[in-house]
Amino acid sequence: MTKKKLRSQEWFGGKDKMGFVHRSWLRNQGYPDDYFRGRPVIGICNTWSELTPCNGHLRDVAEIVKRGVLEAGGVPFEFPVMSLGETIMKPTTMLFRNLASMDVEESIRANPLDGVVLLTGCDKTTPSLIMGACSVDIPTIVVPGGPMLNGKFRGGEIGSGSFNWQIKAKQDTCEFSDADFLEAEIGAARSAGHCNTMGTASTMATMAEVLGLTLPGASSIPAVDARKKVMAQLSGRRIVEMVNEDLTLSKVLTREAFENAIVANAAVGGSTNLIIHLLAIAGRIGVPLELEDFDRIGSHIPLLVNLMPSGKYLMEDYYYAGGLGVVINELGDLLRAKTTTVNGKPLVENYADAKCYNREVIRTRAEPLNPAAGIAVLRGNLCEDGAVIKPSAATPALMQHRGRAVVFESMEDYHARIDDPDLPIDANNVIVLKGVGPKGYPGMPEVGNVDLPKKLTLQGVKDMVRISDGRMSGTAYGTVVLHVAPESTVGGTLALVQDGDEIELDVPNRRLQLLVSDEELARRRAEWVAPDPRAERGYVRIYLDHVEQAHLGADLDVLVGKSGSVVDRDLH
After folding, report:
1. What is the pTM of this model?
2. What is the CATH number of the domain that holds 232?
């Protein structure tokens, strides 16, 4: 092992006035002299917040990481960054993902850190922290907070995310009493941790592990399992070694690593949100990645993991069945075997001894749940820059469908009219929702899987084709076309759709077409008027001025790429 010159010594190593300044104020915390004399300084980037339920236990996790850092000879300094609570924040945490990434980037760059541990959990905390760290590019390791235990309700198990999408239908059909509602509410999220389905939080943790950013096995351990504490302590030890080895993010996050993440996401039935976050991370670290890669690389991959919302089980069952290591072994030659991970070993080698203990939960490639379940990327005049759909969560009979549009110009319009008994809509129609893209909402919320009309739910209708420029929760399901680009608010063809227009969805042929003549679309486009911006000041106005479209990752254009770790001016 060869020790590199430590970045922190630019702050602590000087025998001049500035060295005095940097050291002396920190000494008010009672740190001994050797903290400033060449030991690797490790930042623990913590998204703990009482307003982020999924991350509410990370204060304790940070203390365990510190223990590992100290054991390995490093010096730990915990610092807070903006936390993003998916279930609490309005209008959507996606609006603030880029802001949180800026907080992470500048906090790392501006401080005397040689390496950083990212404590993640809720949906956007994982990509935002990784994005910010990529733009600095120092040794980095991720410690996922872990999923909560299985939800329990009247002798059965419920997913803390997927069950949410059934509630309105159960209320509409009077299947749920007030007592049922309260009991399910109490039992759905019964321990610390993030959603226990293969929703976006679990997808992002899986992504981090497959990218090589966590220690092997870290992504699926339940938050309250003692083995999560062991993993946190070992991660604290390992980041010190990574600093000494100069194992930076750019050495781990190669093009091959991103390809592995796409393959694994298909195999576990992961969220469509992976697309928008992985594109943004690739843009920060400088790896070429485009929307078509998700279809070309992932659409033929078999679905191996039987988890909600694409299957039956939950994350606790998945961990007991063997977790991601089993999936990696099953994927075998479908993966790029030589990618580097944070423990210094190739990805595939890390899981050579993984064993499956429940084939109902993790299937073999010979007997998958679905032979080809990855994300499908659609093209056509309704989505010139692409749209996506998750086939494993959709109704097979609707994958080729032609129907007339029922259009909602905004979420407010949808809420006002969707349950109107006089709304002219039936199961063959296509629900079109506008104004929920990156600029339109703003922030591109998870509203693409809008609830069906009450009158159709009462008729027993379970699914309909829904199209929008928004996103869908990773815990959700349905035949839902998402991420339509360009979005309606910037004048994409979605803005021109009118009630009664016929729309053709053909997933096998990757086609999404508005069956309206070019001449008529040109006429409508000439009459279209762009909506006023949703904000005049503050971060939201900056976001509106700089956010990119969904097919590019919805990052801010001024954040793409990296500034590196060098700060060449001091504070005095």
Report:
1. 0.96
2. 3.40.50.2300
Q: Can you tell me the distance from the alpha carbon of 152 to that of 258, in angstroms, rounded to the nearest whole number? A: 36
Tell which of 512, 527, 542 closes a domain.
527
CA atoms within 13 A on the CB side of 123: 31
Q: Which residue has the tokens 């603030």?
A: 96
Does residue 290 sit in the same domain as residue 383? no
CATH code assigned at 447:
3.50.30.80
List per-residue pLDDT tens for the chain, 572 residues long. Answer: 446 789 999 999 999 999 999 999 999 999 999 999 999 999 999 999 999 999 999 999 999 999 999 999 999 999 999 999 999 999 999 999 999 999 999 999 999 999 999 999 999 999 999 999 999 999 999 999 999 999 888 887 887 766 666 676 777 776 778 888 788 888 888 999 999 999 999 999 999 999 999 999 999 999 999 999 999 999 999 999 999 999 999 999 999 999 999 999 999 999 999 999 999 999 999 999 999 999 999 999 999 999 988 889 999 999 999 999 999 999 999 999 999 999 999 999 999 999 999 999 999 999 999 998 889 999 999 999 999 999 988 999 999 999 999 999 999 999 999 999 999 999 999 999 999 999 999 999 999 999 999 999 999 999 999 999 999 987 778 999 999 999 999 999 999 999 999 999 999 999 999 999 999 999 999 999 999 999 999 999 999 999 999 999 999 999 999 999 999 898 88
- The domain of 439 spans 376-527
The answer to whether the CB of 451 falls within 8 A of the CB of 168 is yes
In a domain, 478, yes or no: yes
Handedness of CA 427, 429, 432, 433 (dihedral sign): negative
Residue 207's region, left for phi above 0, alpha for psi from -120 to 50, else beta, is: alpha
Provide the number of structural domains found in the chain. 2
Tell me 33's DSSP state: G
What are the phi and psi torsion angles at 432 (to 5°)?
A: -115, 120
> Please, are residues 269 and 310 in contact by the beta-carbon 8 Å criterion?
yes
Residues 247 and 381 in one domain: no
Which tokens hold the place of 184?
């399910």
Within this chain, do residues 385 and 292 fall inside the same structural domain, yes or no?
no
For the chain, give the longest Cα–Cα distance: 79
Alpha-carbon distance 84 to 195, whole Å? 14
Residue that has been written with the tokens 């430590």 in this structure: 6
